Amino acid sequence: MLTDLGLDALWAYRSSYEAPEDFDGFWASTLAEARAHDIGLTLTPVETPLRTLDVFDVTFAGFGGHPIRAWLRLPRSAEEPLPAVVQFHGYGSSRGSELEQLHWASAGYAHLQVDVRGQGGVTPDPVGSGPAYPGHLTRGIESRDTYVYRRIFTDAARAVDAVRVLPEVDPARVAVVGNSQGGGIALAAAALVPDVAAVHAQAPFLCDFRRASLVAGGRPYTELTGYLATHRTRERETFETLSYFDGVGFAGRATAPAWFSVGLMDDIVPPSTVFGAYHTYRGPKEIAVWDYSAHEAGGADDLRAVLGSFESLLKPTK
């Protein structure tokens, strides 16, 4: 069943989000602090049974110079330099196995799959936080300076910096992609590194927080409502913090060609929040609406369409 507005209302919907006046200054200073650290890129070859791809265990310096892990997959015998795809994973998940997510490298891209700090993978978050509702969404939410997504979004920008250092990669042809949390991170990365070449945001989480808090019936957004139900006097301060991390704000600053997707039966990310970001997006954009999809937002069919669009835009080596 539909979980949010009908399609006509979604096309008409506009988010009430307004970016704080110092949004750009906050992120400029945050990235400058991170980039004061050497990128510290290391690649360790990983033995696999794969015959057409090479895999590396990667470490690079993210927020605070903290080490961030990733998989790098490269197509063997490909003509270089390669276009690259930097991928971010869903909420509470991880970069997974080195034998998973092989489609991007198989299609001719250098593929950097980033492990989000402090979640289900191998990258810790060494920064503590105050009281939070169980999960990740409210960690450090007392302040924009301590909020966990300040670190995660900075790590994402540094991931783009890292892949551009690789001699196998054409730094002008780097795309950012992700599903759910990964889609929200990709939108942030596209705004923070405005010369990325393309974006794929599949059912992006972390957009239109105020709207999501009012209509989402399941996790992870209910972690936010659970926090506010306990910290009843912190509503204003909480949404003030979130205003620096809202995907609608990043969408209004990103200009790379973008492909969004949304499932109208999504009970995790309300479709109106996706449209809130889509309508605000500054660059060339398309949105695939999957009437009978839930959070997978078209799944492999959506991915097939984006692979075709990236092929014509980024011209991967075959």
**Mean pLDDT, nearest integer?**
96
Q: Give the strand line-up of the largest sheet.
A: 1-2-3-5-4-6-7-8-9
Report the helical percentage. 25-40%
What is the C-level CATH assignment of the domain at 7-41 and 129-313? Alpha Beta
The assigned CATH architecture of the domain at 7-41 and 129-313 is: 3-Layer(aba) Sandwich
Report the sheet with the most strands, covering strand number, pairing sense and barrel closure: 9 strands, mixed
- State the CATH topology of the domain at 7-41 and 129-313: Rossmann fold
Approximately what portion of the residues adopt beta-strand conformation?
15-25%
Written as H for each helix and E for each strand, in order along the chain, the element string is HHEEEEHEHEHEHHHHEHEH
Summarize, please.
The active site is at 180 (nucleophile), 266 (charge relay system), 295 (charge relay system). With 318 residues, this protein is of the alpha/beta class. The protein is 34% helix and 20% strand.
Structure description:
With 318 residues, this protein is α/β, with parallel strands linked by helices. It has a domain at 7-41 and 129-313: Rossmann fold (3-Layer(aba) Sandwich). The chain contains eleven helices and nine strands. The protein has helices at 7-12, 23-35, 103-106, 148-165, 181-192, 209-215, 221-230, 235-242, 247-251, 271-280, 299-314, and strands spanning 42-46, 53-61, 67-75, 82-88, 110-114, 169-179, 198-202, 258-263, 285-290. A hairpin with a 6-residue loop joins strand 1 and strand 2 (53-61). The mean pLDDT is 96.
